[in-house]
């Protein structure tokens, strides 16, 4: 999977987090066994991740920087990048993010999403 393809999927997810459609978009993107590991220590399976996205406040803006692809196999790839985002009434958020996509039955799905927070100096 190319960097362009991975970024297209990642931007689709981020745009949905900005417009309030996150649970719908991630319902399509997350694999049945998908997991999200969040910066505050939560590990969410598919059902918990989708539930949390239904009630999540929207992000006002986001930025993906320093993206790179890590091949995982013929039908899997990881996108690693520095993600920053902000929302009204909350401090800016910055983390190194990893999204692992797998191809199953001809389409790509998000299998694992992980965040590692970075210092406020980023």
Automatic annotation (TrEMBL):
Superkingdom, natural source: Bacteria
Domain DUF4440, first and last residues per copy: 7-108
Protein's organism: Cellulomonas wangsupingiae
UniProt protein name: Nuclear transport factor 2 family protein
Record-linked InterPro entries: DUF4440, NTF2-like_dom_sf
SUPFAM superfamilies: NTF2-like
């Amino acid at each position: 999977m190319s960097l362009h393809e991975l970024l297209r999927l990642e931007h689709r997810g981020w745009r949905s987090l900005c417009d309030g459609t996150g649970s719908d978009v991630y319902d399509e993107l997350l694999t049945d066994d998908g997991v999200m590991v969040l910066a505050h220590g939560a590990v969410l399976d598919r059902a918990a991740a989708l539930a949390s996205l239904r009630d999540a406040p929207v992000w006002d803006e986001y930025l993906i920087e320093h993206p790179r692809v890590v091949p995982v196999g013929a039908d899997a790839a990881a996108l690693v990048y520095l993600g920053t985002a902000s929302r009204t009434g909350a401090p800016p958020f910055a983390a190194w993010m990893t999204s692992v996509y797998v191809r199953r039955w001809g389409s790509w799905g998000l299998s694992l999403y992980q965040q590692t927070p970075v210092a406020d100096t980023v």
